[in-house]
Specification:
heterodimer; A: 204 residues; five-stranded mixed sheet; B: 206 residues; six-stranded mixed sheet
Chain lengths: 204, 206
C-alpha cells in the first residue's frame, strides 16, 4: 500500500514537473527576429501623431497624383525639379519632416525617371564640387587645362517641390493637414497641390 | 527517490520534492526569460547588420541592373566617389559605422571583373591628398590633385527616421536613401531606397 501511494505521488510529481517545464519553455520561447519588425504600413498601438503608415500612404498617393498633371504627363521632355523642404507648421518642431519629401523623391526617382529629373540644391552641389573637384570657384585656367568641371554646368530646375504641414491639436485627438506643392520657378505659379489629412488619437 | 519516499514516509516527501522542483524551475525560468529582456542588443530599434546587408545588396543590385546607368557605362566606366553618410536619424551613427553602408556597396560593385569595367571608384579628394602627401616619392609627387582621376559621379546616402517613444514602447521607421549624383550638373541619375520599421515593448525586467 505505501508503495502504491508513493508511486502515485511520484507519477503526479513527474507530470507536474513536465507541465511546469512545458509552460516555462513556452513562456521563454523568443519571438522571431521579424517579430520586432512590423510592416512599415502597419499600425502599432504605441505610435502617436503622424505615423509611418501615414508617411507611406501619403507619399505613395501624392507621388502618383503628381505624375498625372499635364505639365509632366504631356511634356515631351523631362521635367527638372529641385526638392526644397517641408515648412513644418505643426506643434511638433522635433519631427523629422524632411523624411516626407525624401520618400517622395525616392519614389519618383525609382518609377518616373523617364519623365522627371531631380537636381540637388545649388549650395549642396557647390559643396560637393568644392569637396571633390577642388571647387567651382578655383583657378579657371587650371581647371580648363586639366579638363575639370567648367563653370555653370548645373542643370537648372524648372520646378520646386515643397510642402507645408499643419496640425490642430485637441484634447483627445490631433488633426493633421499635410500639403505638397509643385511651383514653377519662372512664374511662381503653383501648378500642382496635393494634400493628405488625418486625425490621430492622443495617448497619455 | 522511491526508496527515499519509502524510508521517510510519503506524505511530506512528495510535497517537498514537488516544491523543490517548482522552485528550481522558477529560478531556471527567471534566468532564461530574464536574459534577453536585460540585454538591450537583442531588442532595440537601431539599424543593424541585417539591415546593412539587405539594403546594400539591394542597392548594389539595383545600380548594376539600372538601364540609365547602363547607357552611361556603354561609353566608358563611371568614375564614382563616395561621400560621407548624412545621418538624419535619431540613432547616433559614428563616422566609421556610417561609412560601412557606402563602402559595402562599393565592395559589391567591384567584386566582379565585369562590374569593375563599368564602375571605377576613386578616393575622395581629402583622403587622396592625405595619402599622396604621406606617400610622396620625390619627383613623382606633382602636388595635390595633379594626378587624381576626377570623379564624374558621387554616391551619396541619407538616412532618415521617424521615432515614437514612450516609457513602455519605442518604434522607429527608417528610410535609407542612396543616390548617384552627376557632380557636374547636380542631376540625380539614380536613387534607391530601403525602409524598415522596428518596434519593441519594455519587458518585465527592463
Amino acid at each position: 500500500m505505501p508503495y502504491n501511494v508513493c508511486k502515485s505521488h511520484y507519477g503526479n510529481m513527474c507530470c507536474g514537473a513536465a507541465l511546469v517545464a512545458c509552460l516555462l519553455l513556452t513562456g521563454c520561447a523568443q519571438p522571431g527576429y521579424n517579430a520586432y519588425r512590423p510592416g512599415v504600413s502597419s499600425f502599432q498601438p504605441g505610435d502617436q501623431g503622424l505615423q509611418s503608415r501615414d508617411l507611406v500612404d501619403m507619399t505613395n498617393r501624392l507621388a502618383a497624383d503628381l505624375l498625372k498633371i499635364p505639365e509632366i504627363a504631356q511634356n515631351p521632355n523631362k521635367v527638372i525639379i529641385v526638392m526644397t523642404g517641408i515648412d513644418n507648421k505643426t506643434s511638433q518642431p522635433w519631427q523629422n519632416d524632411q523624411i516626407y519629401l525624401a520618400r517622395m523623391r525616392a519614389l519618383l526617382n525609382q518609377y518616373a525617371r523617364d519623365r522627371i529629373a531631380f537636381v540637388i540644391q545649388p549650395q549642396q552641389l557647390q559643396q560637393l564640387q568644392q569637396q571633390e573637384l577642388g571647387g567651382a570657384g578655383g583657378d579657371a585656367f587650371e581647371q580648363s587645362s586639366r579638363g575639370q568641371v567648367p563653370q555653370n554646368t548645373r542643370m537648372i530646375p524648372q520646378y520646386a517641390l515643397k510642402g507645408v504641414f499643419y496640425d490642430l491639436p485637441n484634447s483627445a485627438t490631433t488633426y493633421y493637414l499635410c500639403t505638397f506643392q509643385l511651383v514653377n520657378l519662372q512664374t511662381g505659379e503653383v501648378v500642382w497641390e496635393g494634400h493628405y489629412e488625418t486625425r490621430t488619437l492622443n495617448l497619455y | 527517490m522511491l526508496s527515499l519516499c519509502e524510508a521517510r514516509g510519503l506524505e511530506g516527501c512528495g510535497i517537498r520534492v514537488l516544491s523543490l522542483l517548482a522552485v528550481g524551475m522558477f529560478l531556471l525560468g527567471l534566468a532564461g526569460c530574464g536574459g534577453p529582456a536585460l540585454n538591450p542588443d537583442m531588442q532595440n530599434t537601431f539599424l543593424d547588420s541585417h539591415d546593412l546587408v539587405v539594403m546594400t545588396d539591394k542597392m548594389a543590385a539595383a545600380i548594376a541592373a539600372d538601364p540609365v546607368i547602363a547607357q552611361i557605362t556603354e561609353h566608358g566606366p563611371m568614375t564614382i566617389v563616395l561621400t560621407a553618410l548624412k545621418n538624419k536619424t535619431d540613432q547616433i551613427i559614428p563616422r566609421h559605422e556610417g561609412d560601412i553602408f557606402l563602402h559595402r556597396v562599393r565592395a559589391l560593385l567591384t567584386a566582379h571583373e565585369s562590374l569593375r569595367r563599368e564602375f571605377v571608384f576613386v578616393l575622395n579628394k581629402a583622403t587622396y591628398e592625405r595619402l599622396a602627401a604621406r606617400e610622396q616619392t620625390g619627383s613623382e609627387y606633382l602636388g595635390p590633385n595633379a594626378n587624381r582621376r576626377q570623379p564624374g559621379y558621387a554616391l551619396q546616402a541619407t538616412f532618415y527616421s521617424d521615432n515614437k517613444v514612450s516609457p513602455e514602447y519605442r518604434s522607429a521607421y527608417y528610410l535609407c536613401t542612396f543616390f548617384l549624383t552627376d557632380i557636374h550638373t547636380g542631376q540625380i541619375i539614380w536613387e534607391g531606397s530601403y525602409e524598415t520599421k522596428k518596434a519593441v515593448h519594455s519587458g518585465f525586467l527592463d
